[in-house]
Specification:
- Helix content is about 75%, strand content about 0%.
- With about 550 residues, it is mainly α.
- The chain has a domain of about 290 residues: Sodium/glucose cotransporter (Up-down Bundle).
- GO terms for molecular function: symporter activity.
């Protein structure tokens, strides 16, 4: 599949890469402490943060996988849009309940709250879980992206890893979270512009948008599936698991995952944080709709040009449909735009990798290095150490990328399910901290572990249950187990009791936030998100007819 890329296209890629490095160097001049490096001095506006959050979700896997799902996947099509209905509802939960506490506590690591509410082992357990899962998932992401770059350009796998990793790690080390945020904004704009151009070319090749839509397989136009429930019927992408399971997944991801919460903690105040979440809740659907429409265009183009599918590399079980979008880009776009399309793929990859590397560094520094270091460092030494930890994590994930290919392909395919294995139980630990007074750390950890074990059991022995339901199942099991253990401990007067001085943290923060709500009228703005959810549901119902 590798094509001859013109020197003009390579020049465009080089200008983009060195432009990122220059921006990171310029932003690095403002850093004086680890807080500047990890939370940008808590002085970033809502628009950059909101767009950065969107950019991270718009990864290469999404840009390649979603159009392939719409165009070619068995049981696929526009059902993918159901997944986005949960996003505005998740933003409402975070705006009204989660972020007030985290902003009130002035956290850098979200897991530091767990030590204040529970104990140190709870903090270290969830922080360690985050480090393990994110590092492994990042290595798999680098591996898959490098394969795409290799197949498109013929550079070779090693050179592709180095090319992607070198630029990402260097600008991440220099720029810190501010560099991550502003590079994400740039990358999102490039990516969105490129997707619009690709869609324009696809529409033109189809004879117009109406012709393209009419030529699209009617069975794939279904946007809502109310006829299945995902509990044992083997239908993963039915409406209810995507809405309810998606809600639990998104609340956990946006509210309990360091890679997301860290940016929300970088804003100047709670008002800016909530505005960033509002921006994400309102604008994410149009972006997802854009690359789903690209999938519609790719499906029609493949029907009209049978040789297109034949040109895709063989994945072992058939054509590698995830490479359909880049194959179309380099074959259909003119010189110059091919370079921009490759930049867009790089941008999608970097916007996911940079934030994860910075959050891995922040978690390591806050939850382990500073937590156990006896003594103090100057702000400058902490800044240098923070950059060093980022570089180390960059090197670790790049090295891991060379070895994950030895893992069975089924595991690589299953990596997308790992989030749902842990998301529900992790969310349960935070909710137990927010809403209960007597659940102690050991009870929460036991619930977390049993919740994950239950989800793993569903994965292995009950494959017909939609993996989206794991987010709900794991949450419910973790909560029930923790509450039961807490109750038994009170009856027998054994075990640990939650520290009373810390249990009131959430209530104090909420009282403070309610005063802010009255001043900024965030309840009304939350209704905007509910109205947006309703409007999206109506739109999908209309498209479904």
């Amino acid at each position: 599949m590798s094509q001859t890329i013109s020197w003009i296209d390579w020049a465009i890629i080089a200008v983009y890469g060195f432009g990122l490095l220059a921006m990171a160097y310029w932003l690095a001049r403002r850093q004086e402490s680890r807080e500047d490096y990890y939370v940008a001095g808590r002085n970033v506006g809502p628009w950059p943060v909101g767009l950065s959050i969107m950019a991270t979700q718009c990864s290469t896997n999404s840009i390649l996988g979603a159009p392939a799902f719409v165009a070619f996947a068995a049981g696929g099509g526009l059902l993918w849009l159901q997944y986005e209905l949960a996003v505005p509802l998740a933003m409402v939960v975070l705006i009204l309940f989660a972020m007030p506490l985290f902003r009130h506590l002035q956290l850098v690591s979200v897991y530091a709250y767990l030590e204040q509410r529970f104990d140190l082992p709870t903090r270290l357990t969830l922080s360690g879980l985050f480090l393990f899962v994110r590092a492994f998932a990042t290595a798999v992401t680098v591996y898959s992206i490098a394969l795409v770059i290799d197949l498109i350009t013929g550079l070779g796998f090693t050179a592709s890893v180095v090319l992607l990793g070198a630029f990402t790690v260097v600008y991440d080390v220099m720029g810190g979270i501010r560099g991550v945020i502003y590079s994400d904004v740039l990358q999102l704009l490039i990516l969105a512009a490129m997707l619009v151009l690709v869609l324009i070319f696809l529409v033109d090749a189809s004879g117009g948008f109406t012709q393209m839509w009419q030529s699209f397989d009617a069975g794939r136009k279904t946007t809502l599936d109310f006829s299945h429930h995902g509990f044992g019927d083997g239908q993963t992408f039915a409406f209810w698991p995507m809405l309810i399971g998606g809600l639990f997944l998104y609340v956990s991801y946006y509210g309990c995952d360091q890679s997301q919460v860290q940016r929300q903690l970088s804003t100047r105040d709670i008002d800016a944080t909530n505005n960033a979440l509002l921006i994400n809740g309102l604008l994410r659907f149009p972006l997802v709709l854009l690359y789903c429409l690209v999938g519609v265009g790719i499906a029609v183009y493949a029907t009209q040009n049978p040789q297109f599918i034949a040109a895709l590399p063989d994945s072992g079980g058939g054509p590698e449909y995830n490479l359909a979008v880049p194959l179309y880009m380099i074959n259909a776009l003119p010189v110059g735009l091919v370079g921009l399309s490759l930049v867009a793929l790089f941008a999608a990859a970097m916007s996911s990798l940079d934030s994860v590397l910075n959050s891995l560094s922040a978690t390591t520094m806050e939850d382990f290095v500073r937590r156990f270091h006896r003594g103090s460092w100057s702000p400058h030494k902490e800044l240098i150490l923070s950059r060093g930890i980022t570089a180390i994590w960059g090197g670790v994930t790049l090295l891991m990328a060379f070895y994950v290919g030895d893992i069975a392909p089924t595991v690589l395919e299953a990596i997308n399910k790992i989030g749902s294995l842990a998301n529900g139980p992790i969310l349960a630990v935070f909710v137990l901290g927010f809403l209960t007074h007597r659940v102690a750390g050991p009870h929460a950890i036991a619930g977390l572990l049993l919740g994950m074990i239950t989800n793993g059991t569903c994965w292995i022995f009950l494959p017909d249950i939609s993996w989206l339901w794991w987010n709900v199942i794991g949450f419910a099991v973790a909560v029930v187990v923790a509450l039961a253990l807490s109750y038994l401990a009170r009856i027998h007067r054994v075990g640990h009791n939650a520290r009373e001085e810390n249990v009131d943290l959430y209530e104090s923060a909420i009282r403070h936030h309610l005063r802010e709500e009255a001043r900024h009228n965030w309840y009304r703005r939350s209704l905007w998100l509910v109205a947006w959810f309703t409007g999206l549901l109506v739109l999908l119902l209309y498209l479904n007819t």
